[in-house]
């Protein structure tokens, strides 16, 4: 991401890293695109080594020498490649390790999870305040352009994340029980013995199986292993 942005900027005019950094800060792009200022200078050094940019001239400001970079012909090609790659990427990642839940709830103590989750909710709420403020400044409800949609998408995501973590916080005992049952199930089974035929299910079958699995664990954690074994036996019979 940062490489494409630097090359884009240098394709407009030769400049130095500090100007690019100030532009990102002024426009808010350092927050919106999650770009750290230190990464700009690292990327400039790397791009120069790769000969995608070169030193146009050097300027002295007091005791410091500032390098002014310009893009090369190969850099223009690299810029186009980087930007095509960025356009093809999803805006937000789909899926998260947290969605598995049980490795976390089956390992960390209740107090640890409470402290971490509360702190994370506070951080998410601060981000939500920031993004909501800037949405109100920069966009109008009647405008359905990309800028408005970008703000709405981010704000909706933050609200969803806050709700997810509050659910974990409010029903932590339930999810701790799920984590413990998952550990018992893993301890009691050798998954390498599950046949390829059993694993070769379509998406709907697998989803139904997982939902039933989760339901049995939550309903009766103490007998989760026995109940899950029954589900597997039922699945085997259905495949005969």
Folded structure, characterized:
With 240 residues, the chain is mostly helical. It has two domains: 2-88, Winged helix-like DNA-binding domain superfamily/Winged helix DNA-binding domain (Arc Repressor Mutant, subunit A); 97-239, no CATH class. Helices cover 70% and strands 7% of the residues. It is built from twelve helices and two strands. It has a two-stranded antiparallel sheet. The longest helix is centred in the middle third of the chain and has 29 residues, at 110-138.
Produce a short descriptive summary:
By secondary structure, this protein is mainly alpha-helical. It is built from twelve helices and two strands, in the order ααααββαααααααα.
Helix content: 55-70%
Beta-strand content estimate: 5-15%
- What's the multimeric state? single chain
Instruction: State the end-to-end CA separation.
Output: 51 Å
Tally of separate helices: 12
The strand count comes to 2
Mean pLDDT, rounded to whole units?
Answer: 83
- When the domains are counted, the total is 2
Protein name: PadR family transcriptional regulator
InterPro entries: Tscrpt_reg_PadR_N (IPR005149), WH-like_DNA-bd_sf (IPR036388), WH_DNA-bd_sf (IPR036390)
Domain Transcription regulator PadR N-terminal: 6-80
Organism: Anaeromicropila herbilytica
């Amino acid at each position: 991401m940062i490489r494409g942005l630097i090359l884009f900027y240098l394709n407009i005019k030769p400049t130095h890293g500090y100007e690019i950094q100030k532009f990102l800060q002024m426009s808010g792009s350092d927050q919106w695109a999650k770009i750290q200022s230190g990464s700009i200078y690292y990327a400039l050094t790397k791009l120069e080594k790769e000969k995608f940019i070169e030193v146009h001239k050097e300027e002295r400001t007091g005791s410091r020498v500032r390098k002014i970079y310009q893009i090369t012909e190969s850099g223009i090609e690299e810029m186009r490649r980087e930007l095509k790659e960025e356009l093809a990427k999803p805006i937000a990642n789909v899926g998260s390790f947290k969605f598995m839940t049980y490795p976390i709830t089956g390992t960390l103590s209740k107090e640890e999870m409470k402290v971490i989750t509360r702190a994370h909710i506070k951080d998410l709420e601060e981000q939500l305040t920031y993004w909501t403020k800037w949405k109100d400044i920069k966009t109008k409800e009647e405008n359905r352009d990309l800028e408005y949609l970008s703000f709405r998408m981010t704000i909706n995501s933050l609200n969803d994340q806050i709700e997810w973590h509050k659910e974990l916080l409010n029903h932590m005992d339930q999810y701790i029980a799920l984590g413990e049952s998952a550990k018992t199930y893993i301890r009691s089974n050798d998954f390498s013995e599950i046949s390829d035929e059993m694993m070769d299910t379509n998406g709907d079958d697998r989803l139904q199986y997982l939902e039933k699995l989760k339901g049995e664990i939550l309903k009766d954690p103490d007998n989760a292993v026995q109940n899950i074994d029954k589900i597997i036996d039922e699945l085997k019979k259905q495949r005969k």
